[in-house]
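Q: Two folds, back to back.
A: First:
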Amino acid sequence: MFNRIHHVAIICSDYAKSKWFYTEVMGLTIIEETYRAARGSYKLDLALANGDQIELFSFPDSPPRPNFPEAQGLRHLAFEVDSVHDVKSYLQSQHIEVEPVRIDELTGKAFTFFTDPDGLPLEIYQK
């Protein structure tokens, strides 16, 4: 019935900063960028290498996200990577704070967390 996740939607507070983060730091490809004048809002469609997509939105006066690690709702967005340690080093070279690498006790795989410009928790997880 459900084949795959088509996209994940993110609302940002600073469109230019978030666009830079997701395209320049994380290397996502721009599919389409749309300015919706009636809403005073941008919609940026981004793709990962495998075709998975993120929709980045900007809305005027959107409320901040409650950012507690165990808050109800979306907990984090995880990206599969070939090497958690290599990606962590790269992110740190881009002045992104990254938590220490941990090992998932259920799978034995490495993972760690960092945040986007709005504090959205992002995870990198070993392939």
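A: Second:
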Amino acid sequence: MGGPHRAEPDDDARPSSRRTAAPDTTGPFAAVFRDAVQRRGLSLDRVRERLAAQGIGVSLATLSYWQRGRSQPEQARSLRAVDALESILDLPTGALRSLIGPSRPRGRITSEGPGLDDSRQVFGERSHVELALGTDFAQFNNDLVALSIHETVRIDARRRCRAVAVKQVMRATRDGARHITVVHDEISAEHATVVPHFGRLGTVRRLPELRTVVAEVEFGRPLARDETALIAYTLEYGPEPAQCPHYERRMRTSPHEYLLHICFHPDALPTSCHRFFKERIDAPMRYERGIALDVSHAAHILLHKCPPGVHGMFWEWPR
């Protein structure tokens, strides 16, 4: 978790000098697409909006998978999007379409769990998560994919995060998955407690030097491939947590549903609350939108097939 940042302006507000370099159209489709997006200074959400303005609907998750090489455009609508992308990204006609390889077998991409490249794409190099997991980082939950994630964060009257309740449904990508590893950082690790509700609490490691807690929530038996499991737990932050200006979830895959629910104490209400998205932990915000509090002094976001990256909310306190 990190402090709030402002979203960067899109390419329409940037100097045209950002686009003077000739595009590189050699290499795999994913690399050329990714480099062209970066060269134009566009976020994937902005790319999606420009496609939508031409009547072409493509999800953020799909665009993210294309630029990471986890899937490729194959259907007629997707190929139409590729043709439009060449214009949007100032690429020569056919530059992207000519790089699309042969069709892949159905299910090949979605059956795989996240790998090291997926982790580094979101967490970056030498993140607290990688330091906390050590050599296990390369296999971090790579036999599971999240289907549904629900989180409820409770903020107390002193503007501090008291607890986070998490419920997840996962699917095993291979036989033998026995537990999920959960990592929470930016907390007073020596005082934090993990309380399981569904699943059995396994090994818990508190790392005060990293302000991180690593815990295993066990399923109770090995899962078969494609079998699902539900786990739920509450992370209690301890007696003196720090003031909390935001909360975020780092996702290496694209769950079917993500619900983030922030509950504020009635004696400590923020002046504003905003949803945000970042492509990785250390990246600037690429998307920001105001969220209203409801009658219960809470704000929430509900996302479907959200792209890999960092999703969350930040809020501003009265001065």
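Q: And?
A: Helices lie at 29-40, 44-53, 60-68, 76-88, 116-123, 128-133.
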